[in-house]
Each structure stands twice: as C-alpha cells, then as structure tokens.
Amino acid sequence: MMFLELVFSTPLLMLTLISRRRHHLPPVIFISRQLTSSHFEDDPPFSPILKTPKPQNQETHNPKKKKPKEDGSKNKPQNLFPVKSDLPFDFRYSYSETNPSVEPIGYRETPKFSPFGPGRLDRKWTGTAAPSQQAVDMSKVEEERVAILGEPLSEDEVSELVERYRHSDCSRQINLGKGGVTHNMIDDIHNHWKKAEAVRIKCLGVPTLDMDNVCFHLEDKSGGKIIYRQKNILLLYRGRNYNPKDGPVIPLMLWKPYPPIYPKLIKNVADGLTFEETKEMRNRGLNSPPVMKLTRNGVYVNVVENVREAFENEEVLRIDCAHVGMSDCKRIAVKLRDLVPCVPILYKDEQIIIWRRKKSM
C-alpha cells in the first residue's frame, strides 16, 4: 500500500526536487521530511503517542486528599541539658579497676573533654571522674537501699531465682571484661531489672583476680544484692520493692575516655634492694620455671592464693602471660602488688617477675 502511494506521488516529488535545487536544499532531507509528514502520520503503527498532560492542581482530581503529617517533634518530650543525676557517688569510667587514692601525673587529653558530651551533665569532668556537686548523706542512702531490698529472701526463693538465672543460656546476662564494673554497665543492669528480678553477670579477665572488689562495687553502685556467687558467675538481685518507673537517672558516657598517665610500676632499683641485687633477682626469675600460665580473658580467681602459697618456698616467681597482652600484664602486676602483697620487678616478653620482698618491709 505504501509502495503504491509512493509511485503515484513520484511526479509531485520530482517537481518539488527541481524547485528545491534552486534553493540549494539537500534532497535527502526533504524526502525524509515528506515521507515523515505525508505518509507516516496516516499509518497507525508509526503515529506518535500523545501523552495526556497531568493536571497542574492534583488535589482537585484526587478524591482522597491526604492530610499533611503532623510534626511529632512538638509532642515528644524535649531533652533538657544538662542532665542532673542524684546518684551518691563520683562518676568514673571504671569503678573496680581504678584507685581514687592514686593521683595521675599527666593526661593524654585535657580534662575539658568530658566523655558525657559537651553540656550534657551538671558535673565537671576532672580527667578521671565527675565528682558529685553536693554532699551525700550516706545514712539516708542506706535507708533507701534497705527499703528497696525489702525483707531478706528465703532459701526457697533464692534457690528458685538461682535455678532460673544461673544457666549459660540465660537471656538476662551481662559480660564483665577487662574494664571491670564500668559506668554504662550500671545502666545495663537497671534495663534488665525492668523485666527480670535478677541479672546474671559473667566475669572474665583481670577483674577476676579480686572478685570481692567486683561484688562490692556492683552492690554499691546498683543498689542490688549478690545472691549467688560461683567462681566468676554472679547473680545480682534487684530487691522486693524495686520499681522500674522510679529508677535512677544514669547519664551515659558517649565514648571511652583516654586513661591518664600514672607513675611507673617497675622501678630501676626495687625498694629494699640494691641495683646488683635487683639485677640478680630478675635473672633468677627469668631462668626459673613459671609458677603458672595465664590465658587471655581467662578466670584468675585462684591466682592470688596460688602465688601466696608459692612464696612460702620461693623468693622470686615468674608468671607466664603469653598471648595475654602487655596492657593486661601491667594490670595483673598492679593487682598482685596490692593483693598478695609483693613487688613486681620486671615484665618482659609477657612474663611477670615478682619478688615477695623482705619480711621487715
């Protein structure tokens, strides 16, 4: 059909070409224009698709008019800073692994960088702690704690709670690592207490050297009570009269602060010894067999007792801490110095050499 139309329209095309040559127009372009305008417009397969323009005002054509969303920020309670907390103790990153009586000799960052964030807490950060702004009446605090704990649990109640929460598959568990009892852990404990009467705490690493210290700070900072203790497993009970709605305000630390710089633990000359005697003690310790071998993130509950027994027969001991890490080696040496007590005289290649020191010291 299209071929016949081209044949009949050929004289007309020739005349048009002759006339167009005078105006120096390309014939191919003109033929294409003629074919496009004359023949393709009438052919349905090649006819252009007309797009219906969208109405400018869509609201008139949409019967279901959507209401604008209300701004929920006006209804939400606004956080007012700084946060005020009435907890009766100084806020520290770790409560069980720091000694407030030891003053640092320097800081790795200026004390103005508070881990609680700028302007978020009404306490000033000193570089190691955020001290309470008001005097604390400890008698009143103890009365409130006793009122929350209520009457002591009976043996049947304790055994029921222990059977419910002591197993390893308990969903109410908090892991306590090298940081010990940290500030943010107190908030985790209270969050578990909102739905459970007790929380299971699994302790690993350096803090297990002194479990008495860990238990003290858990009870002191949370207000609960330890009802079960088996090596490194603890159960912390919230109390009979605990009300989750009346929980304390615990501002969270947004990042871990840099630890300050403390005096050196190992001295060139140990106290009570000369330089030659100190050197001799170090060589004896390095060449002696290790009294024990510690693993990374292990359970060190019996280490202090074993060291005390070993000091009854030996003057210098070596503790193998391979793969433990130098930072943990220093923490272990500090704990042993205070708990045994003893004098650390060397740590080299993750080996700790300790001296039992003279009896007169």
TrEMBL record:
It comes from the Eukaryota. Keywords: mRNA processing, mRNA splicing, Repeat, Ribonucleoprotein, RNA-binding, Transit peptide. GO terms for molecular function: RNA binding. The keyword RNA-binding applies. One of its GO terms (biological process) is mRNA processing. The keyword Repeat applies. SUPFAM superfamilies: YhbY-like (SSF75471). Residues 42-81 are annotated as: Disordered. PROSITE patterns: CRM. InterPro entries: CAF1P_plant (IPR044599), RNA-binding_CRM (IPR001890), YhbY-like_sf (IPR035920). One of its GO terms (cellular component) is ribonucleoprotein complex. Residues 151-249, 271-361 form the CRM domain. PANTHER family: CRS2-ASSOCIATED FACTOR 1, CHLOROPLASTIC (PTHR46247), CRS2-ASSOCIATED FACTOR 2, MITOCHONDRIAL (PTHR46247:SF4). This is CRM domain-containing protein. The lineage of its organism: Eukaryota, Viridiplantae, Streptophyta, Embryophyta, Tracheophyta.
